[in-house]
Amino acid sequence: MARSLTQTGTGPLVRPSRGIGLGRLRGLGGYLYVIPALAYIALTMLYPVYENLRMSVHDVNVRTFLAGDWPFVGLDNYRTLVDDPVFRKALSVSLIFTGGSLLVQFTLGFALALFFVRPFPGNGLLRALLLLAWMLPTVVSGSLFRWSLDGDYGIVNAGLEAVGLLDSGRFWLIDPDTALLGTIIANIWVGIPFNMVLLLAGLQNIPATLYEAASVDGANAWQRFRSLTLPLMRPVALSVLLLGLIYTFKVFDLIYVMTGGGPVDATSVLPIYTYQLSFEFFRFGQGAAAATLLLIGLVGFAIAYLWLSRREEIA
């Protein structure tokens, strides 16, 4: 009994508290539930990124890869990419593809959100039908547009010939002048529901009393849209644009299914260019460098998104 009790000053004998120790153990035990998730992230994300970075500063091709001897070249792979005109063209194609897609996606998505924000019969059904384009796998969507734009039996040629806008079939995805436009149209079709859903949620959060007060003050529909809707939708619109920028800039599967990056690199965006370097030309070191540059660009967009979102919250 004497070993289990202690004297505290002149007070009574008390038993040492073991609650703090047990509390600490329970607190540490909570981290055990996080370990599987952290291990999964480390194995599937952090380790591949590390290996990609390591490969990007070595000369890795078929010969050195099989031999297991990767000569260190530092930033030579990055210098080679910057000097490569094909890389610069892929960057310009990516910017055109992303900019063209975002502009139309956001505009049409906003218009549809304004249309569906008012209740009417069949509202839910129509929204569900529009979401099909977003729910379909991207490979399926790419295949649908590849068949629709086919020069021999595509529905686009059939429709244009039926109304007299086209005399003979045109191979849209084989022509370098129209191939990129075809992929942009396909990506717009896929991305419109995403923009519409997010913007519609933002519109529904605007109190209807604001519009009622503006109507009482004599504001017409355009004035209410310019003075109320646009300012109040700015944070949501900014988030939608930046998220769309990140998603669109890394599009690979849609373009690969439709054109494979051709013809004559007319649709070769950065993800396609990176894939070709690694798995068609087997220049793994340069492919890893291109993937790293693409990752840096996406991380930059993500940081800009977080910074602007935080700025909007503070404002």
Describe the structure.
- The chain is mainly alpha-helical and 315 residues long.
- The chain has one domain (83-314): MetI-like fold, CATH 1.10.3720.10.
- It has 15 helices and two strands.
- A two-stranded antiparallel ribbon has the order 1-2.
- The chain is globular, with a radius of gyration of 28 Å.
- Mean pLDDT is 86; it is low at 1-9.
The total domain count is: 1
Radius of gyration: 28 Å
- Examine the coordinates and then state which fold CATH places here, giving the name of the CATH topology: MetI-like fold
Structural class: mainly alpha
The CATH architecture category equals Orthogonal Bundle
Distance between the termini: 64 Å
Low-confidence stretches: 1-9
CATH superfamily: MetI-like
Instruction: Describe the main β-sheet briefly.
Output: 2 strands, antiparallel
Global outline:
globular
How many β-strand stretches? 2
SSE order, one letter for each helix or strand: EEHHHHHHHHHHHHHHH
Under CATH at level 1, the class stands as Mainly Alpha
Total helices: the number is 15
Helix fraction?
over 70%
Major beta sheet, strand line-up = 1-2
Question: What is the mean predicted local confidence, pLDDT?
Answer: 86
Strand residue content: under 5%
